[in-house]
Specification:
This protein is α/β, with parallel strands linked by helices and 402 residues long. The protein has 2 domains: 8-180, Rossmann fold; 189-213 and 263-399, Up-down Bundle (Dehydroquinate synthase-like, alpha domain). The chain has 17 helices and 8 strands. It has helices at 5-14, 35-46, 57-73, 95-104, 118-130, 175-180, 183-194, 196-210, 216-231, 233-237, 241-261, 270-284, 292-316, 327-346, 350-359, 373-382, 393-401, and strands at 28-32, 50-55, 77-82, 111-116, 135-139, 151-156, 159-164, 170-174. α5 links the parallel β4 and β5. The structure holds NADPH dihydro-nicotinamide-adenine-dinucleotide phosphate (NDP) and 1,3-dihydroxyacetonephosphate. NADPH dihydro-nicotinamide-adenine-dinucleotide phosphate binds at residues 56-59, 62, 91, 93, 116-120, 122, 140-141, 143-146, 149, 151-153, 177, 181-182, 185, 188, 192, 258, 264, 291-293.
């Protein structure tokens, strides 16, 4: 992190933005080569009698096995639940996975340990929350910013909804495991962070236009994380240890930013809504899933293009508009137009954005992910409705202008 956990906790307490900040329950956060030893010591210090490891076949092989060996040596009792893939071969954070975890976890375990990437974390976050026990995070790749957040984006009856649950009480990321994670997972972590270019603009827009809660300190935390990734793109793309460390720090800090707000406001705007829409469509068509960060790496330049090509000229000619039905919203827009002109002009161009994603090994065009133009166009028209409490620029363009 740019700031240490203690610094962030302290700065969050000092913040006077007027929002009800959520507490940060994370007691210890470690990214190191001795993460297993520190995790065992943490469990012993907590005097936990039994813990439940939640993983799947891939993440158990990547980290779970080693962790179990360490727990055995330290005489810490544990159970293992390996979440099963669906008929397409994907492990999904949905009703079936949650029920499997609840069925295979005894009521007397003291804590769950999520050993995996974003999906395993969201399944564990929600299941442990419902069992009223804490969970500990063991990320196996720096692939998303969800490890430290409290929201669990879940697929419920085919619809992706984010349920606020709980953040981990501690996090232990082993550098060897992170460095060995597939290259695609590094690209996705970078993609999820680069998506903050547009999510942060959408968040400010929602605040100015629809009074959604906003905090400058949380904005700064997210922006710092984005900047750290962009500044270290060389080390990240080369998968140097330093680059992996920077990326992991960044995703953790961005997750804490969401946690402080109790919502994903800073981290998820129209670009995420497009990605969620594509994910749901793939589920409907029974197609293999595409990594979250790959999708947002592709959707973000599409949103930048839409905002710079359609919204920016509109801001430049606001005075020429005749009175519209929702005049109060247009008045607000006039009052803040200069700010958003500057914001949109300062974004990287779609080509510059795609060059960064290409450099880290990510996809840059929808067709590379099996997403056709019809789906892109449909999502641009409809995806803003997935999160009714987010007044994004895309929402504005679709509902109040076009
Ligand atoms: N809570 C929040 O705030 C956030 C949640 N998310 C959510 O996270 C999910 C995406 O998570 P993401 O991390 O991209 O992907 P997944 O957790 O779905 O994992 C993707 C793949 O990586 C494999 N894998 C993970 N670590 C390793 C490793 N070290 N070695 C080998 N294989 C590995 C997994 O295997 P296997 O499938 O077998 O596990 C899987 O094939 C989405 O549902 C998204 O909505 C995203 C951002 C924020
Ligand atoms: O993916 C996220 C942040 O990267 C959060 O997604 P939601 O907006 O669905 O909670």
């Amino acid at each position: 992190m740019n700031g240490t956990l203690q610094e962030i906790v302290s700065l969050a307490e000092q913040c006077r933005c007027g929002n009800n900040h959520h507490n940060i329950p994370i007691e210890q956060m470690v990214i190191s080569h001795d993460a297993w030893e520190l995790l065992v010591a943490y469990l012993q210090n907590k005097q936990y009698k039994t813990v439940a490891i939640i993983a799947d076949d891939n993440t158990f092989a990547a980290a779970g096995r080693q962790l179990c060996d360490m727990l055995e040596k330290a005489s810490v009792r544990y159970t293992v639940c390996l979440v099963q893939p669906d008929e397409n071969g994907d492990v999904i954070a949905d009703e079936r996975s949650i029920v499997q975890v609840l069925l295979e976890t005894s009521n007397d375990v003291d804590a769950m340990i999520a050993v995996g990437a974003g999906t395993i974390h969201d399944i564990t976050r929600f299941s442990s929350y419902k069992m009223n026990i804490p969970f500990i995070s063991v990320p196996t790749a720096p692939s998303v910013d969800g490890f430290t957040s409290m929201g669990a984006p879940l697929i419920i009856r085919g619809v992706k909804k984010t349920i606020q649950a709980q953040a981990p009480i501690a996090l232990f990321a082993h550098m060897d495991v992170l460095c060995k994670a597939p290259k695609s997972m590094i690209a996705t972590g970078f993609g999820d962070m680069a998506a903050k270019y547009t999510s942060l603009v959408d968040w400010q827009f929602a605040h100015f236009m629809a009074d959604e809660p906003y905090c400058p300190f949380v904005h700064q935390l997210t922006e710092q994380s984005l900047k750290a990734c962009v500044d270290h793109i060389e080390e990240i793309s080369a998968r140097e240890e330093k680059g992996i460390h920077v990326l992991m720090n960044a995703v953790l800090q961005s997750g804490i930013a969401m946690l402080i707000m109790g919502q994903s406001y800073p981290a998820s705007g129209a670009e995420h809504h497009l990605s969620h829409y594509w994910e749901m469509e793939f589920l409907r068509q029974k197609k293999r899933q595409v990594l979250h960060g790959m999708k947002v790496g592709v959707s973000t330049p599409i949103i930048i293009e839409r905002y710079q090509r359609v919204f920016l000229p509109m801001l430049n000619h606001l005075q020429e508009r005749s009175l519209a039905t929702n005049e109060a919203k247009w008045e607000r827009l006039r009052a803040t137009a200069t700010h958003f002109q500057e914001q949109l002009q300062s974004l990287p161009s779609p080509a510059q954005f795609r060059a960064m994603i290409e450099k880290v090994g990510g996809a840059v065009a929808p067709e590379q992910l099996g997403i056709d133009q019809e789906l892109v166009d449909r999502s641009l028209r409809e995806a803003h409705r997935l999160r009714s409490n987010r007044f994004t620029i895309l929402y504005f363009l679709n509902e109040l202008v076009l």
